[in-house]
Amino acid sequence: MPIELLYGPGTIPLDLPPDARVTVVRKRPVPALPDPVSAVREAYERPLGCPPLAEVARGCRSACIVICDITRPVPNGLLLRPLVETLVAAGATVTVLVATGLHRAGDADEGARLIGDPWVADHVTLAWHDATDDDAHSDLGRTAAGTPVRIDSRLVDADLRILVGLVEPHFMAGWSG
To answer: How far is CA 56 from CA 25, 92, 140, 149, 160, in A?
Structure first.
């Protein structure tokens, strides 16, 4: 019984023996939005339970958008442009900070693929988080359990902080994204 497993940007075939008992678990199909770009803009302009992005960004001189690294399938090419356009129109300088966790930093080509839109790349500063660089972090104290809390200073120092990403199960960390 041939099965195609999702892998990276494509699939890989898996051929199982004919006597294998196979159960394929699939997520339910979700209909595609007819106009995803308009839907994203609408969400930024008329969000549920909070002010519109343009109102939140008003008066901010700097903004830091945290995005997942290349290991997470987030549609940044769709999400970032209307977000960055709104922040730039409000007068903010925008940094896109790639949340690498303990993964390696990417190169310029990977950064361009990750951002997914040349206009966005031209209007932001792209930065890669480095969890091993203590000097690049702000010490925010300790949790009630005594765990140190250190956050990338580019995020801490920004007037406006936005996280764009994906939360998913992680085989080692429990949850990721």
So the answer is: 41, 11, 24, 26, 8
For 105, 122, 128, 160, the CA distances from 95, given in Å and listed in that order, are 16, 11, 10, 10
What does the block give as tokens for 17?
């023996």
Beta strands in 41-99 (DSSP E): 62-68, 93-99
Residue 83 structure tokens: 């977000």
- Of 133, 171, 170, give the one whose Cα is nearest residue 152: 133
How confident is the model over 128-160, as pLDDT tens digits? 999 999 999 999 999 999 999 999 999 999 999
Contact 79, 67 (CB under 8 A): no
| Segment among 10-14, 49-53, 137-141 with least mean pLDDT | 10-14
pTM for the model: 0.82
Paired strand residues for 168? 176
